[in-house]
Amino acid sequence: MKILFACSECSPFAASGGLADVAGSLPAALQKEGAECRVIMPLYGSIGLQWRAGMTFLTSFGVPLSWRVAHCGVFTMQYGGVQYYFLDNEQYFKREGGIYGYYDEAERFAFFSKAVLETLTHIDYEPDVIHCNDWQTALIPVYLNVFYREVEKLSRTHTVFTIHNIQYQGQFGLDVARDVCGLPEWAIGKVEYQGDLNMMKGALEECERISTVSPTYAKEILDPYFGHGLDPILRQKQWKLCGILNGIDTVGYNPSKDHALAAHFSVRKPEGKALCKAALQQQMHLPEQPDTPLLAMVSRLVSHKGFDLVRYAMENMLREGMQVVILGSGEAQYEQFFADVQRRHPQQVAYTCGFLPTLSRQIYAGADFFLMPSQSEPCGLAQMIALRYGAIPIVRSTGGLADSIIDWDTPGGGNGFTFQSYNADDMLGAVRRAMGLYHSEYRAEMLPRALKCDFSWRRSAKQYMAMYLGI
User: Fold this and answer.
1) Bridge partners (DSSP) listed for residue 38
2) Residue 407 carries which DSSP code?
3) 265 part of a folded domain
4) What pLDDT is recorded for position 17?
5) Beta strands in 323-444 (DSSP E)
6) Does residue 463 share a domain with residue 433?
């Protein structure tokens, strides 16, 4: 089976969030299950010369988009056993800032969606399934059914659409559907929702299967609280909706070989974990105290990640005698809060503003616990990475956190500490249970139980293959 994985970001080439991690590891896992999976993404100006040097130019052509024809160049390369296609248009993708957040987002990704299909008419590749991801590729199923079903090469192609975060839907004024996206009048209804253009709604209508990144999230988004206005559409389309839990790249995230760490460790040789903790305490200018529990947070500092709970409970958490390390940036109110807490408690709190990939791995490896009190979390990868590096997650049981973290006190054993309601006192109760474990005779169970967890892509890839074959 031939799968074309269409995405707006992919690690290691261009990344801003969890989608890049998925796009960078799921295709390789699908190949191991027997699929021929290729990836197609924009050629951003930020993609470095070290990658461009390995690319080969294939072809170029014009992409009809409303009243204009836009240039598209196609480059390709092999990486990690997967073939990648990069679509080049400097007007849309050579930008000085990040990969998102521009005034012409609708036009940029309407072009990309149309160019994906146009590319398939110019290269020697005929996918059975185009797997689209989030709103940036949501117009692919729409364009396929409106413009390309009469093309022999694409007449049998199926589409799958994965919702990584339903909060971001690609919503614009309805005139954009005509003047920018170039949809004919008879097709406007496919993307119109509540008087606006909603690209994700178009994908939900036109694709043949809808997936989300965890089974619990697939249920949650049917509810108005989580559905961000699309829950009525999803309830209508529930027959084609499923949830498949993401995995992580267990080769890239491997504490027994990670060059970023002060020492390596594994289930059989766990001694290096203590050395990583000592190195992190030294690096963060915290007292080197091996018996003091160290709790970490690595996240975007935004409200739906639960930082209002952390702000409310932080002083009580610190009274438990722990050290806290935070890495992240986002809303100014949270950046200022953590900077202020660090000034008031320099012996217990270390905050680094921004995202530093090497430091994030060192934090995972040095931490005893990892806090994720999310208000909503479609899947979450950080809790899986934390367990991979021997840190016990403390999470609110929502979305993928509910599917991946089992409470420690569950009969048969768990792999973390959970709380149910979005409440600071409930979060504090879970933190205190974790501290109780740390200071008990059962502390020795923490590291081996964490390191034995398997969140590789193997199981998820089999589920995706079953979904593809069931179309």
Assistant:
1) 4, 83
2) B
3) no
4) 82
5) 323-328, 349-353, 369-372, 392-396, 417-419
6) no
